[in-house]
Amino acid sequence: MTTTYRIAVLPGDGIGAEVTPEAVRVLQTVGKAAGLGFEFESALIGGAAIDATGGPLPPATLALCKRADAILFGAVGGPKWDHLPQEQRAERGLLALRKDLDLYANLRPARCFPMLVDASPLKRSVVEGTDIMVIRELTGGLYFGEPRGVSREADGSARGVNTMVYTSREIERVARVGFDVARKRRRKLASVDKANVLVVSTLWREIVTQLGKEYPDVALEHVLVDNCAMALVHKPTQFDTIVTENTFGDILSDEAAILAGSMGMLPSASLNHAGAGGKTVGIYEPVHGTAPDIAGKGIANPIAAILSAAMLLRYSLDRPTDADRIERAVFQVLEQGHRTGDIAARGEKAIGTKAMGDLIVQAVEIQY
Ligand code: IPM
Ligand code: MG
Q1: Would 15 disulfide with which of 27, 126, 300, 328, CB 3.0-4.6 Å?
Q2: Is the pTM of this model over 0.90?
Q3: Structural contact between residues 235 and 126, judged by C-beta atoms closer than 8 angstroms
Q4: What pLDDT score does 281 carry?
């Protein structure tokens, strides 16, 4: 009997709608070759959902996600919805979904592909050999802390508040993911904070240090976030696994993306490791966002979405060898010299989203 997995597909806005179908095709190819059944069901999120239903996360979408074994996500947002009040914007759909499913651990690998070293704006001598896993806390901190809001004073002036708040429980569970992931990599964990200024960071540091005693085989260091931002572009190879709070992780993971040559290469997984029966609920999405400047042109790089599908197999479906095959296929297609615009060197020929998807599908087929 074949196992059937239910995959919720949420393409969203901008290039999300262009790259997600390529990731679906790759999963279908794996399904056929490996004898896995996939049931794909699409739903609206973000701006597309606002236009159709008035809100960024329709109840039907949330219900579908809760039933699914995993969620394949594109991207949300765009200039069309930027005028809306903060609480109604397209991005809220994604934030609400992360919160509702309690996906507190966001894994963002940033690996410098050897054949793309020259696509990075940084020098070869700096980026070569970079292989970092950024683990970003995703359901707490400044993004969700209370109180928050803008109040108007009697004299017409205004006051805006966001709060960075973490409980020891929230810190411990994401730090544990950090140690567990580091253990499967090069056993080095950098915990990033701002403990020279923020009390919440002091608490973070204490909890992580305490937990580190359970992981004597992992080398733990504490790095201040400003210093980490500098070190990432100065000597990125010094890092293996990074664990940090929500906003710091948002910023540092964009920075780390440059090390991989292009944002178009970076996948991510948002996980809740405490899923029932050991099952890991997860959203799998490219880090690049909607890229309004190139949306609708068919030129976006589908590799981040396709590598996100590989992460889906690895973390939610426990199919690591199928994930390896997708990663190998991507590697081979790049080795053969095929490039989308974002990773093409000057003068190099660039192919479109579908053409890159086709090549990777073919390369996946021959892995079986
Ligand atoms: C990301 C994005 C999101 C975030 C936005 C789209 C809400 O920047 O996933 O990094 O800030 O988390
Ligand atoms: Mg971001």
Answers
A1: 300
A2: yes
A3: yes
A4: 78
